[in-house]
Amino acid sequence: MAARQTRFYVTVGGVRLHYLEFAGDGPPLVLIPGITSPAAAWAFVGARLSQTNHVYILDNRGRGLSDQRPGLRYRLEDYALDIAGFIETLGLGKPIVLGHSMGGRICVKLAADHPDRVGSIVVVDPPVSGPGRRPYPTPLQPYLDAMRAASAGEPLPATPNWTPDQSLTRAEWLPSCSLEAVVQSHKGFHEEDFHADMPKVRCPTLLVYAELGGVVTEADAEEILGLIKGAKKVRVERAAHMIPWDNMDGFLAAVTPFITAR
């Protein structure tokens, strides 16, 4: 039977956040999407994860139906404060937090700065760019071009392995992303020192990374494991950056043993 999806709002530190909830009998799991991925784009993943966990998918500030009023900040510390407040407000204790791409960087910041709000983290194909490091493989302009095209009702470039429903959902929700949020966040990929937070992480950590796309290389994965004590890694074969879209079975095989551990 398909998981029942519900949507709610919560206000954290004056910021109104929208989220989707997929009821499940397992441990709570908070899913944090990436730079241009509203919660709706991850609903099909939430439905699958709800077979083992009780899943909450957040619209990050500046995306989807969450607050994106002028003047909001979009630094890792801001996103992490939102997640910490979300967890506290909903009384989730110390849940599993799974973040993809930018969401993976937020996971690390959350665990480093708010260890009392997280039980374990799954960091999925995070940008490893930062001061003195190689740039993120996708420059800003393609994001802006896709947002403009979707807002104008123009077709987006075809993406191999995506279903028609997944492509349609992306096209429908991409215009809900704030230009200011995307520009600031992409800038943060290169200015914020994501790696400096890693040694502060003390909770169980799983790094999941894609075989294809070049976001996280084998050398990057080894560096991360050297910085986060006790972290483990799983590479998902036949998948690029948007791992569940390319290889859902591989993604589930990578994360399920970790997110169901008691």
Q: Mind explaining what this structure looks like?
A:
By secondary structure, the chain is an alpha/beta fold. The protein has one domain (5-259): 3-Layer(aba) Sandwich (Rossmann fold), CATH 3.40.50. Helices cover 38% and strands 18% of the residues. The chain is built from 10 helices and 8 strands. The chain has helices at 43-49, 76-90, 102-113, 140-151, 164-173, 179-191, 194-197, 218-227, 243-246, 248-259, and strands spanning 5-12, 15-22, 28-32, 54-58, 96-100, 120-124, 205-210, 232-236. An 8-stranded mixed beta sheet has the order 1-2-4-3-5-6-7-8, sandwiched between helices. Strand 1 (5-12) and strand 2 form a beta hairpin.
Q: Would you summarize the structure shown here?
A:
The protein has 262 residues and is of the alpha/beta class.
CATH class wording? Alpha Beta
Q: Give me the strand/helix succession.
A: EEEHEHEHEHHHHEHEHH
User: Biggest sheet: strands, sense, closure?
Assistant: 8 strands, mixed
Distance between the termini: 25 Å
**How are the strands ordered across the major sheet?**
1-2-4-3-5-6-7-8
Radius of gyration: 17 Å
Instruction: Quickly count the helices.
Output: 10
Instruction: Give the overall shape.
Output: globular
Approximate helicity band: 25-40%
Average pLDDT reading: 96
CATH architecture: 3-Layer(aba) Sandwich
Number of strands: 8
Strand content: 15-25%
Number of domains: 1
Taking pLDDT < 50 over at least 5 consecutive residues as the criterion, the unreliable ranges are none
Structural class: alpha/beta
By CATH, the topology is: Rossmann fold
CATH superfamily: Alpha/Beta hydrolase fold, catalytic domain
